[in-house]
């Protein structure tokens, strides 16, 4: 998993599942054509925002409604970035997002696969939310950590889960560091 997939999954795990299945090409804008995605060479925060938004816009109506709340995380993410020192570097890309995104094919989230993946982490998530810090957390993959965080729901609960995972899962902690390095680049 690279930093872009990490970023998208941290905002919306189901959108990240779509990204993991698509071929990636380099280009001027973000183009989703059903089998691949063109990703522009822009600052990382803008890239994460544009790709997340393009994936969302490529969803069919049912999946779009199901993931509508996830777009609020994407919009909150970009609002925080715009109000930070990085904001000046990416504001033009955000302003031109409608011009930079093109959807030429529809995508569907594989909800059966999502549920299958969720089954492994749900029991651990319940334990973390009840105040435990299970030893098994160190055995989770970075992907499973991101899914666990996503399943936590609200921002406050996600932050709690991320803090516990950061203390107990070295791979997740290293992935978070790489993600923040990418954001600053």
Question: Can you summarize this structure?
Answer:
The chain has 185 residues and is of the alpha/beta class. The protein contains 11 helices and 4 strands.
Task: Quickly list its features.
2 domains, 68% helix, 185 residues, alpha/beta, four-stranded mixed β-sheet, 4 strands
Question: Describe it for me?
Answer:
- The chain has helices at residues 3-11, 13-21, 44-57, 61-66, 68-82, 87-95, 97-100, 111-129, 142-152, 155-168, 170-184, and strands at 23-27, 30-32, 36-40, 101-103.
- It is of the alpha/beta class and 185 residues long.
- It folds into two domains: 3-103, no CATH class; 111-184, no CATH class.
- The chain has a four-stranded mixed beta sheet.
- It is globular, with a radius of gyration of 16 Å.
- The model has no long low-confidence stretch (mean pLDDT 96).
Tell me the layout of helices and strands:
Layout: H1 3-11, H2 13-21, E1 23-27, E2 30-32, E3 36-40, H3 44-57, H4 61-66, H5 68-82, H6 87-95, H7 97-100, E4 101-103, H8 111-129, H9 142-152, H10 155-168, H11 170-184
Parallel strand pairs: 1-3, 2-4
Antiparallel strand pairs: 2-3
Helix pairs in contact: 1-2, 1-3, 1-9, 1-11, 3-5, 3-6, 5-6, 8-9, 9-10, 10-11
> Which strands sit side by side, in order, in the main sheet?
1-3-2-4
Q: Based on CA inertia axes, which overall geometry fits?
A: globular
Termini gap: 18 Å
User: Could you tell me the mean pLDDT?
Assistant: 96
Percent helix range: 55-70%
**Low-confidence regions:** none
> What fraction of residues sit in β-strands?
5-15%
Series of H and E elements: HHEEEHHHHHEHHHH
Q: How many structural domains are formed by the residues?
A: 2
Biggest β-sheet description: 4 strands, mixed
Secondary-structure-derived class: alpha/beta
Number of helices: 11
Number of strands: 4
| Estimated radius of gyration | 16 Å
């Amino acid at each position: 998993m690279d930093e872009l997939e990490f970023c998208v999954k941290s905002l919306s795990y189901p959108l990240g599942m779509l990204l993991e299945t698509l071929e990636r090409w380099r280009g001027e804008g973000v183009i989703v054509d059903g089998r691949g995605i063109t990703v522009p060479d822009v600052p990382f925060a803008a890239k994460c925002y544009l790709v997340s938004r393009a994936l969302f816009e490529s969803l069919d109506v049912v999946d779009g409604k199901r993931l509508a709340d996830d777009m609020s995380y994407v919009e909150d993410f970009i609002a925080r970035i715009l109000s930070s020192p990085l904001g000046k570097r990416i504001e033009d890309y955000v302003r031109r997002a409608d011009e930079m995104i093109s959807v030429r094919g529809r995508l569907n989230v594989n909800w059966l696969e999502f549920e299958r993946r969720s089954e492994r982490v749900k029991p651990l998530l319940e334990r973390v939310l009840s105040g435990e810090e299970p030893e098994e957390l160190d055995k989770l993959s970075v992907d499973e950590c991101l899914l666990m965080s996503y399943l936590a729901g609200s921002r406050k609960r996600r932050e709690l889960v991320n803090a516990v995972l950061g203390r107990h899962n070295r791979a997740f902690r290293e992935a978070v560091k790489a993600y923040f390095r990418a954001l600053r680049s």
